[in-house]
Amino acid sequence: MEIEERQPVPPGSGHPVPAGPRSEEPVGERSEELSGARRSPLGRRPLIPVVAGCAVLGGVLMLLPSAGGGGAPRPAPGPAARAASAVGAGAPAALSDLAALIDDRESRVRARPRDDVSWAVLGAAYTERARRTAAYAFYPKAEKALRTSLRLRPADNAAALEGLSSLAGARGDFRAAKRWGEAASKVAPKRWTTYPALIDAYTGLGDHKAVDRTLGKLLALRSGPAAQAVASRVYRDRGRREDAAAAISDAAAGAATPSEEAAFLTQGGDLAWERGDRQESLDHYRAAVSTDADAYDALAGQGRALAALGRVPEALRAYRSALAERPVPRYALELGELYDKLGLGAEARARYGLLRDLVRRDGAAGVDDEPVLGLFEADHGDPRTAVMELRAAWQRRPGIAVADALGWALHRAGDDQEALGFAVRATDKEHGGGVRSALYAYHRGQIERDLGLSGPARRHLAEALRINPYFSPLLAPAAREALTALGEPPAGGPAEETGDEETEAPPAPPGPSAAPGQTSAR
Fold it and tell me: Which of 8, 18, 223, 479 is the most buried (most CB within 10 A)?
């Protein structure tokens, strides 16, 4: 359906969602290699789910009138009502129910084209479906629906503002997400559902003080599972793994639907993977897929964990299934690198070609895949192209992920002096880093090694392998080789080793206000 393209002045966005009681039903066990598994106990305290999109959709659904009345018993909810109930409780909806909700709201706006609330619900539902399935053609439809809602009700339309913020964040446009989100928070400052997308936007922009401030507002307004999950994400980004695990474990206690439980299980698998626990991560991922067959991130996670466990045929099947169901560049890169490790060059090149195709497809829908594309180009393509693209990305989204990717691309292009500044920014708490990432530590260690800073290089390469000895099928072995080449520290102790004495830190890389070509190098 055609929607008027009038462009309202950007307001903001946000999130909605209460969380219901946790189901006591255990996760069903299956025998299939990719979907069955022992349930990983959430008492082990996993990581965090993405709740921003669900929160937004839940927020707009809060505006809808409840059906029924009187003392007559209510009929069992249909798929659209289940989707509305799930997202209204801060939970992901089953994809089949989400599709029913979309059909229902499309029918409503055809019948009542001036229904601003239904337009907002429809836009948020489009965004969530695109995010879950990588069917990014829904993003332009989401934007049209949300802008139509805002045009029909330009004042105090927090639902449309939140939806636009969530949409922008899903596309990787964190400046727009911030703009819409801040406008939404002005319209309804006590609407807690505004804040998760805003926190994501500040994270993507590297504004960690704003993240902490906004998290404080969120937790003052809401203490349920959705808010705890956001807090867990922030704690994880600060390197506070125990706090992150505690928060997500508490959030998991409120999981009310299979789709929500699967999201928490997936995040638990991610946290276990990040600390190098292959079996626990696999247990979480399998339980997630057993709980919700549409948990495609968990399916890719199975591939990651199975490969690290040496179960390569199963890993390949898991990766191929995930990529077929949710074709995103990250899956293509991971599968390609696994094929590379196995010496299957033709298969690897096919996945790398697919990665480029997916990036082009995503770009047509307004999605920014530059961090993944930059890492791919740095390691398997043209590092100088990676530097050029990532410099532009740094202007748009100067967060930790882009700092790491740009630092690595500069290293691969031969500019280790400037590369170190970005690597430090990605890893040092004082520069806004702090997340315990084996990949980031490896990148920094290799840059320091090539600069002749053998002491720091040894520390960071060893740190990468301590964090997760299996972090990459290609780079983990390279980290071991580099440590072997560096040898043992000198007998005289750290003071006699190059780079082990206190040295001046490299200058922080330029902020996004600098021109793309202007950089500071030590």
Answer: 479
- Rounded Cα distance between 444 and 404, Å, is 9
The SS3 assignment for 41 reads: coil
User: Which tokens is 179 given?
Assistant: 């703009």
How many C-beta atoms lie closer than 10 Å to residue 412's C-beta? 23
> Is pLDDT at 464 greater than 80 in this prediction?
yes
Residues 6+ apart with CB under 8 A from 128: 53, 54, 56, 57, 87, 92, 93, 98
CA nearest neighbour of 324 among 352, 292, 300, 360 = 300
pTM: 0.82
**What pLDDT, in 10s, does the model give residues 133-151?**
999 999 999 999 999 999 9
Tokens of 97: 């129910």
Q: How long, in residues, is the chain?
A: 522
Which residue in 179, 161, 213, 131 sits closest to 16, CA to CA? 161
Reading the block at residue 36, the tokens are: 């069955």
CB 479 within 8 A of CB 467: no
Residue linked to tokens 């006590």: 190
Asked whether the beta carbons of 188 and 21 are under 8 A apart, the reply is no
Element (H, E) at 60: helix 52-61
DSSP, collapsed to helix, strand or coil, labels residue 487 as coil
Contacting residues for 206 by C-beta, under 8 A, at least 6 apart = 398, 399, 400, 403, 432
Number of other residues whose CB lies within 10 A of the CB of residue 31 = 7
Contact (Cβ atoms closer than 8 angstroms) between residue 374 and residue 406:
yes
Q: Residue 56: what pLDDT?
A: 57
d(CA 340, CA 414): 23
Q: Tokens 């990605």: give the residue.
A: 426
Please give the Cα distance from 370 to 169 (Å, whole number).
Answer: 14
For 118: left if phi > 0, alpha if psi spans -120 to 50, otherwise beta; the answer is alpha
Q: 284 with 251: CB under 8 angstroms?
A: no
- The C-alpha atoms of residue 247 and residue 203 are separated, in whole angstroms, by 18
428: number of Cβ within 10 Å: 14
Under a CB-based contact definition with an 8 Å cutoff, are residues 248 and 271 in contact? yes
